[in-house]
């Protein structure tokens, strides 16, 4: 059905197509069994203290305001991350702000954290209990006078719900946000976030989402601070403002963050680099160019405990998770692995 509808969908503005997808999911008419595969138990794993059916997650950016996460679970995802959510509702950057690079199987976006705000999102989650592992990605408002205060406000709101909270310091579309990769700024942020954790009765995991545009020296202090301040996971990586030299689509020079196939190897190399230095002390979620069982296996064997996708679903449709699961199971069988957990970090060449 998606293959039949794809020409129509791709004739729509990307943001209108996204809104149509959200509205369609709200109808909840697709049977969950359509997305199951045989022998899926070999993909069972554990993330942040919770058992999940598979290590394939939907990245933040699709269900920004927590409208359809339970419907997304039915598509076969092992976990879902909503957001990025900011304290106050905001429109984001001016349109147009999403661009399909069809010749490169990529997207460029400069959305700027458009979302309904923390109070509305909180109410939605409270009134629609998640049926799977749910992550909540948080960030600051564009017009804020103090980004750290915005992170803290969102952390206070969302620590009581979901399974983990992601501190998003890596979007290229909010001015000044990536400055939190600086050692002093990051430590200040983590100290204040940890104070909230200590005062809270909710022992939720919290993660950092990292930019793929860092230099090697930044990686060292991010790892140091992640260990020091008890980060429970790292998401590697967000979109890239570089990596355009080999793109062929005419939209390649649009301003914003690049996602999809062109950053697949970039993010996989980040995973290898972090995994070697972490020695397995912090789990990694691998993001960037995941659109097949092969690309998912590459990231897991590089050191990721799980993967996330978004752009891949734009190009391949809602059955992409079923395809990835089926292919992953075949790869495990061919290589003699009994469970996906055995694959983590097996290819560090």
Structural summary, described in words:
This protein is an alpha/beta fold and 349 residues long. The protein has one domain (2-343): Aldolase class I (TIM Barrel, Alpha-Beta Barrel). The chain has helices spanning 2-11, 14-26, 69-73, 118-126, 147-158, 183-199, 216-228, 264-278, 293-302, 311-316, 320-335; strands spanning 45-47, 50-52, 56-58, 79-85, 98-101, 106-109, 133-138, 164-168, 205-210, 233-236, 257-260, 284-287, 306-309. The chain has an eight-stranded parallel β-barrel with strand order 3-4-7-8-9-10-12-13, surrounded by four helices. Helix 9 (293-302) links the parallel strand 12 and strand 13 (306-309). Helix 6 runs parallel beside helix 7, helix 8 (264-278) packs parallel to helix 9 and helix 9 (293-302) crosses helix 11 (320-335). It is globular, with a radius of gyration of 19 Å. The mean pLDDT is 95.
Strand content: 15-25%
Order of strands, widest sheet: 3-4-7-8-9-10-12-13
* Outline: globular
What does the largest sheet look like?
8 strands, parallel, barrel
**What is the CATH topology?**
TIM Barrel
CATH class type: Alpha Beta
Instruction: Catalogue the unreliable spans.
Output: none
Task: Please tell me the total number of domains.
Answer: 1
Can you count the helices?
11
Question: Structural class of the secondary elements?
Answer: alpha/beta
Distance between the termini: 40 Å
The CATH H-level homologous superfamily: Aldolase class I
How many individual β-strands? Answer: 13
CATH-level-2 architecture: Alpha-Beta Barrel
